[in-house]
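Sequence in, structure out. Go.
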Amino acid sequence: MTNDGPSTRAILRVVAVLAAVMALAWLLWVSRGVLTWVAIAAFLAVAIDPPVAMLQNRLRMRRAPAIFIVYLGITALMAGVVFLLVPPLIDAGQQATEEVPNYVERLSESQLVRDLDEEYDILARIEEEATQALEGIAGPDTAVDFATRVFNGLVALVSIAVICFLISLYGPRARAWAMEQARPPLRDRLERVASRIYRVIAGYVVGVFLVAMTGGLAVWTFLSAVDVPFAPLLAFWAGLASLVPLVGATVGGVPYIVVAFFQGWPIGVAAIVFLIVYQQIENNLFQPVIHRFTVHLNPLWIILGVLIGGTVLGIVGALLAIPIAGIVQVLVQEWWAARHETTPPPMAARDATVEG
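Output:
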């Protein structure tokens, strides 16, 4: 009698493979924080590559000193930003925390709000959530909390900086070695894929941060002009929210519109008009410039990517979702082109076709 079932060795092999896959998945999940640092460092390494390459070509410098000089420039810029923005943000956060009960009391004067409060207890929830959010900016309650936050932040910052330095230093060598292992037909395709991925990441990182800084500065200028309180804090939130495509400007605009209405309905209406006008400028001026250097993504995929990334990794996941989606799109297009033995169209032409 012959045994047609799987052998014991085959069963053990399948069990071993499943156990290895589960162990790998568990290891990746446990290490997700470190992997997030690596992903951020890789994106930053690509973003700083243009100035590093410029220093290498213009000043005939070796790569390590060029990276170090770029690091010094970024450090000086960050120190200036911290020196100029952090003290006003802390002061504004403390003042806003003290004013939250007054705003809640003014809200309670509305009959609609009183009815909703009786049904859902929304006033207490609003005060609690607003106070907790502002306390995170104004500063922790104890010295231990502050020291813990500073230590964790420094560990993450130093780790990302070191990983970014190493990726930037050895990345070109690793890329050249990988290309040398491929034969000429495949090498050409890999070179094209690597160049397109580089363009996606560099263009997105640089572009989105420019949009965020421009948005925060524009909001601060407007709020200061119409004398809305807590302008630095509200502008900082608006700029931070602008890092998220499509929905960021709207999410960032809600707080300063609410505060503007507390100063009078004309100022509140002006804030709404400002948000609408600025969104039109951003969507029709800034975003097309970013898309020229990246890839065009359908707004539905952008929103889905932001939601999935935000659910998995929070704000960092929402920021990383778009370039990752762009990289996936590049790989899919190259795979499709390879199957049909065609060359993917240039980005600008493809974007014009999609948008048209």
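Check: The chain has a mean pLDDT of 77. The two ends are 69 Å apart (CA to CA).
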